[in-house]
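Subject: Protein record for review, amino acid sequence with backbone structure tokens
Why sent: The fold of this protein is of interest and is recorded here as tokens.
Enclosed: The protein record, placed directly beneath this head.
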Amino acid sequence: KKEEEKKEEEKKEESSSDKSGGYIFADSNPEYLATSDLKGMSQSKVRLALNEIYARRGAKFDNASNKKYFESKSWYKATCSQSEAEKKFNKYEKKNVDLLVEYEESKGWR
């Protein structure tokens, strides 16, 4: 029964534009994303999901819209460069960044 409840909660989260804590993908650091997770997402939302992984690791953003978006999140603390943030990625984050970049490329967004 708990599994059913969890799936129902996930469906609700997917339909919500602002997930718990303001994350696009709340579990992009302890779990692998799948291409199916990205279906139907706009180009800008996919890009934000990609930048969100960097933002979790404290990356500072030069882009004004990214800066404004992430600074509005209670969990975001700008502490380092994007390359420094990248060095902190775990195996899930590395794969998820690759997936998001490949998805953007497959759509002709890069």
Q: What stands out?
A: The radius of gyration is 14 Å. Residues 47 and 100 are 8 Å apart (CA to CA). The chain is about 55% helix and 0% strand. Residues 5-19 have pLDDT under 50 and may be disordered.
